[in-house]
Amino acid sequence: MTMITTKYRNRRKGNCLIILSILIYFLRGASASFLCLRNGSAILQTWFNGFVFNNEFTERCLLMKLNITTIIAASLLFAGCASTTKAPPVVQYSEKPVYVWDDSKSLALNITKASIEVPPSLRDTKIPDGASVTQSGAWKDTAAVVDLLSNGLGGFFGGELFRSTSGKKWQPTYVKLVPAEQGLLSLDEVTQMFNKSFTDMFAQVDEVEFHGFFAHMKMPNNSDDFHVKFTGSYCDSQAFPTKVKDEQREIVRVYGGVTYLNAGDCAVGYRLNPVTKLSWNGQVYYSYSVTALNFYQYLLQFSQFFDGFFVHPARASESGRSDSWGLDYPYVIHNKRMHLFTSPEQSIQLN
Fold it and tell me: Could you tell me the residue ranges of all domains in the chain?
């Protein structure tokens, strides 16, 4: 009789430990949100403290009939808290092999393939012998660039190239190359690097008053990791249909502080892409990139001043909008030159 009782008690003890393990599993998911746990159900909190941390834990396991409904409810509560908790962005490093620069391909194609996910069909378009691009386009007059491309290269870009470089496949992206010997950058260092570049870039444009590039706390399923606040004439209702009109909005920054968006202010969201590696001219680089999620209407007007690489598809559409922006030809801007996806390589000096 004693042996049977002992086996029964051990079985009950094992069941309790299994149940406790399940609870700990769900609580681990909610650990990032202690505030949510603290402010949760007082009943569940009291039950948990009494059940788990009481000195007579073993005896309680043997004597207590656990209500499985309560356990499920607790698990859902904690899991729900975890899924609605804002957290900082994470710098992720791509598992793709190192991209080796191919001198037979254009700068535009090399830097794009090395830095972001693009369709395998992305390629250079071969330019017939004797065709060239020598004119300059005025950066404030995008029509000049469109006219130049239409007259100088019209018909040389195939439909497949247009489709493979449309905004449905990839979006306008800013790329910075950092020598691998400097080591991996933290989120704070990535934020500071792009903040400096964007500060210098927007300083060249009278139509924009730049107020900083910040990493912000985000929901798990949100695509934006950074934001820029700005004011000025480019902050108009056409470029920003959802701009702040009446009420003040707040964006909580990762490294302290809050960005306040008042009536008339505009914000641009950016996604941090996985960091890739590039081998170029005997040196290895980490490629850090952020993709713009809106403000496509005016990107070309100031992106020539970016001190890295600005990658743009043939056309790009913002989420939730039916219109699109672009020159109908993909390009990469670097050192105030618009590099085209052509072979042999062609580029346009931007004044």
Answer: 2-83, 99-349
